[in-house]
Each structure stands twice: as C-alpha cells, then as structure tokens.
Amino acid sequence: MHKYLKQFVHKSPWLYRINAGSCNGCDVELATTALIPRYDVERLGCKYCGSPRHADIVLISGPLTTRVKERVLRVYEEIPHPKVTVAVGICPISGGVFRDSYSIEGPMDRYIPIDVNVPGCPPRPQAIMEGILKACEIWKKQIMEVA
Amino acid sequence: MLPFLKILVRNIIKGPATEAFPFGDTFTPKRLRGRAELNPERCLACGICSHVCAGGAIAMTESADGRGMEFRLWHNTCTFCGLCEHYCPANAITMTNDWHLSHEQSEKYTCCEVQFVEYPVCKRCGKRMLPHLHQRLAKGLVGAVNTAEIMQICPDCRRLTSAMQQIKSKTCFSTDRSNS
Ligand code: SF4
Ligand code: SF4
Ligand code: SF4
C-alpha cells in the first residue's frame, strides 16, 4: 500500500455485519450502536457498509448454524485482506445457549479466525463499541504491517 | 411551523443526545447484570448454580487432594441471566454491573471467574467435609440469624424465627432486584 494512503486509511475502517444464525438479539444491539444517536459508532470513524467487498472490520453474531455455514464462509471469503473479525455475543464465541445442538457448527473460531470477543447475550451497545475500538487498534496495526 | 420551533428550542436547550462513551463516561444502571462474581467464603459447594445455569457456564471440580472445590465460571458463555444469583441458597454469587468484558482472542479461555472454595475440617477427625449452611451461618455470613437457637427447633418454627430475626435485624438478603 502507498505510504501516503497508509496515513489515512486506518482512520476510517468500514464495518460489515454477518448474521450467522443469531436470535436477532445481538443484531438489534449492533443496529443500536450505529443507528440511534445515543451511541453513534460513526464517531469512531467507522461506517456500516452493505457489501462484504468494502468491509474492513467484520462483526459476526450467531452460533453458525448448519444451514447458514456455507453462505457465511462464502461471504467471509469475499472480504478483502487485511480484515479484523469481532465475535459479538456468546453465540459465536462459544455457542452460548445453543452449544451442542444438532444444528450448530460453531464455535465460530473453528472456521473463521476471530480477533476480538465481546461476550454477552446480548452485550450492551457500549460493550460492542468497546470491542469495535479494540478491533480498530488491531486494524491499524495490520494496515501498518501491510507492505 | 410552531411545533417545529418548539422542538428546535427544546433540542438546543437539551444539547446533543450522544453519550461521551468511549471518549468519556457512560451511564451504567446499578441493577445491570454483568460479570458474575463468587464469594468463596459464602459458597456451600452445593452445585445449584451450575445446575440452573442457562449457558452452562459454571464448572465445579473437586481438587485432587480433596482440600476443596474449584469454581470456574466462563464469562464467554454466560448469558447474564442471573439464575445462579437467584437460586444460590447462600447468596454467594452476585451479578456485578461490570460490563467491560470484551477481550482479544488470546484471552478467550482465561476470561473466567475462578475461585477456590476450601472445605472445612472436621473438629473430631480432621477430615475435610462439605461446608454446611450453618457453618456459613455461624460466621454470620448469611443474614444475622441466631444459629444456636435455630438449630434446636423444628423446621416450621425455624422458618418463622429466622424470618422474624431477619426482619428485626434488617439484613434480609433478597435477590429481588426491583427495589435495589
Ligand atoms: S448471544 Fe444471545 S442475544 Fe446474541 S445471538 Fe446469541 S442468543 Fe441471541
Ligand atoms: S455459589 Fe451458591 S449455588 Fe453455587 S455452589 Fe456455591 S452456594 Fe451453591
Ligand atoms: S448468569 Fe445465568 S448463564 Fe451466567 S453463570 Fe449465572 S446462571 Fe449461568
């Protein structure tokens, strides 16, 4: 990456959300962090984007159900490198309340490398923001390392 | 036109709705259920908490030398439901309102509440035994009830006496969070 670009790129990572079979609890909290003015994740320079090809930080919720697994992995592959993955909620981290169910393929780190975990069922918006902040730092480091 | 002006003035007076967090403080309700915490002094090693745990977060293993029991609560599968706190007979588990639990992947399996509950020693033979509720009572840890009296009366009278004592001493421990 060009040196000049490097100075700016790390300041505004774009977020992308993957629902891997979540109960929607975590997704509501994720939407809350961005969409209601009280939390406003865009102050961190982050912005939600609609396409995996534009994403820098991926927020995954849900325990990775059998039905959705292939699609999640396919979407994940489409995200350009470098990327930072955040597991939101206990579902992707450990399977949570769905652990050991017949239809669950997770935990997520069996298939997708995770960088930051935000436990909670669901985590409160502030906790998610804290996780995103950690992810931003990792993202910055990764950008600096890219040749 | 007029309603709009009203809203405008109200918003100007109120200032921005956005919280300062993560650059400043945020509001944390006192009753928020966050990281669970165990007080090993109170725990009876009864296992009710791990039995009722919705997320299967609590593991209790007896140490090899029989000195006590290791209590391990993995925050990464805890749903913050508070069932453990509600059902714990000794009020040993409490849900704190600490929600700063996000961590990097390297800490995934160490994000635990680990405590060691030491078994008391038998006065006669020196063997280790499970902690009894009345031993916890004798330490004055579960309410401020008069244990000596309570041990000599039938369960019905006991219930009444301890209820009366708790009302009098106002140290009734309740898991009802609606008034805290
Ligand atoms: S962690 Fe809890 S709230 Fe989030 S998706 Fe799983 S079950 Fe739903
Ligand atoms: S924390 Fe409470 S419920 Fe759990 S083993 Fe100890 S006394 Fe029993
Ligand atoms: S709060 Fe619920 S999930 Fe967490 S340890 Fe207690 S019973 Fe288990």
Describe this structure in words.
The complex is a heterodimer of chains A (147) and B (180). Chain A is α/β, with parallel strands linked by helices and 147 residues long. Chain A has one domain (3-139): 3-Layer(aba) Sandwich (Rossmann fold), CATH 3.40.50. In chain A, 39% of the residues lie in helices and 14% in strands. In chain A, helix 2 packs across helix 5. Chain B has 180 residues and is of the alpha+beta class. Chain B has one domain (30-97, 107-173). Chain B has helices at 2-14, 48-52, 83-87, 133-138, 147-150, 155-169, and strands spanning 36-38, 58-62, 68-74, 93-95, 103-104, 112-118. In chain B, the strands form two sheets. Chain B has a three-stranded antiparallel beta sheet with strand order 2-3-6, with no helix packed on it. Chain B has a two-stranded antiparallel ribbon with strand order 1-4. The chains are: A alpha/beta (147), B alpha+beta (180). Chain A binds chain B through residues 37-40, 43-44, 90, 93-97, 99, 109, 113-121, 123-124, 126-131, 133-134, 138, and chain B through 16-19, 21-23, 26, 32, 54-56, 74-81, 99-105, 107-108, 111. Strand 5 of chain A pairs antiparallel with strand 5 of chain B. The structure holds iron/sulfur cluster (3 copies).
CATH topology of chain A: Rossmann fold
Distance between the termini of chain A: 6 Å
Q: What is the residue-mean pLDDT of chain A, rounded to a whole number?
A: 92
- Helix content bin of chain A: 25-40%
Tell me the greatest interface. Answer: A-B, 34 and 30 residues
Largest sheet of chain B: 3 strands, antiparallel
Largest sheet geometry of chain A:
5 strands, parallel
Based on DSSP secondary structure assignment, what is the total number of beta strands of chain A?
5
Taken together, the total number of domains of chain B comes to 1
Tally of separate helices of chain A: 5
Beta-strand percentage range of chain B: 15-25%
Indicate the CATH architecture of chain A. Answer: 3-Layer(aba) Sandwich
Q: Share of helix among residues of chain B?
A: 25-40%
Oligomeric state of the chains in view: heterodimer
Please list the strands of the largest sheet of chain A in the order they lie side by side.
Answer: 2-1-3-4-5
Number of H/I helices of chain B? 6
Low-confidence stretches of chain A: none
User: What is the CA-based Rg of chain A, rounded?
Assistant: 15 Å
- Run of helices and strands of chain A: HEHEEHEHEH
